[in-house]
């Protein structure tokens, strides 16, 4: 297996990333790269890894979907009582990673994570397909269940009792990661990859070029 893994090698191209060709605003730079990825029709372009950690510093990570972003931060939705939700109660800091291999690009974003305002969580919840809303209301995310059939049974019971009209559960809603660090990564030949880091200080973003 080790030999097989060692033979997996992809040589990256020559797209350049430097302090001279990026925006001084990391949110604008993210938007530029995200739009470029959209134009490439990359599947699940808004898929991202979210990393959180518990009180002992033990990390956990999972793939989520980005649902909104602006100068305030990056938003996603989940069950507040899930593993990530419980970890964020203890340690409100996390990290996001976007990886678009088709473009040989990666973006890391770190910062503090806070719950979204209730009206924003409501607005997103009520525009979801009814099946997704019911699943969110019924599933005890991250808790042990007997099997899939037990969840399907609860969904059927929920439909009979509530129909299509019900409120967003208090345990389900959105979060916003408020960035204090961005890193943009561009794959280059011979693994001499380009890396530009943004960090915030005194309400200004500072750019640094990092070694591969």
Q: Can I get a quick summary?
A:
This protein has 212 residues and is of the alpha+beta class. 28% of the residues lie in helices and 34% in strands.
Q: How is the topology of this model organized?
A:
Blueprint: H1 2-6, H2 26-39, E1 47-53, E2 59-65, E3 68-70, E4 73-79, H3 83-90, E5 93-100, E6 105-115, H4 118-126, H5 130-138, H6 148-162, E7 172-186, E8 194-201, E9 204-210
Binding site for substrate: 9-12, 67, 124, 128, 132, 191-193
GO molecular function: FMN binding; pyridoxamine phosphate oxidase activity
Domain Pyridoxamine 5'-phosphate oxidase N-terminal: 35-159
Structure report:
This protein is 28% helix and 34% strand. By secondary structure, it is α+β, with helices and mostly antiparallel strands. The protein has one domain (10-126, 171-209): Electron Transport, Fmn-binding Protein, Chain A (Pnp Oxidase, Chain A, Roll), CATH 2.30.110.10. Strands 1, 2, 3, 4, 5, 6, 7, 8 and 9 form a 9-stranded antiparallel sheet that branches. The radius of gyration is 20 Å and the shape is globular. The two termini are 27 Å apart. 21% of the residues are buried.
Distance from N terminus to C terminus (CA atoms, Å) equals: 27 Å
Number of domains: 1
Total count of strands: 9
- Low-pLDDT runs of 5+ residues are none
- SS element count, helices: 6
Q: What is the CATH topology descriptor?
A: Pnp Oxidase, Chain A
Task: Kindly name the structural category.
Answer: alpha+beta
**In the CATH hierarchy, what is the class?**
Mainly Beta
In one word, what is the shape? Answer: globular
Alpha carbon gyration radius:
20 Å
Mean pLDDT: 94
Largest sheet: 9 strands, antiparallel
Cofactor: FMN
Domain Pyridoxamine 5'-phosphate oxidase N-terminal: 35-159
EC number: 1.4.3.5
Subunit structure: Homodimer.
